[in-house]
Design a protein that fits this description.
Length: 62
Amino acid sequence: MTKLFSRFLKDESGATAIEYGLIAALISVALITGATALGGKIGNTFNGLSTKMDGAQTASGG
């Protein structure tokens, strides 16, 4: 019984898969966070540009 228990403690085959899963999860969180921040800035830029274009159209009488 002790041999079985010690062999179970030395077996690290599942640990590698868990580590890769954690790394993939961290990368996913970083990508989602970056995309959300960048998306907000791009949205604000386009909204500002749209406002300026509307103002230019109104000023030119269009």
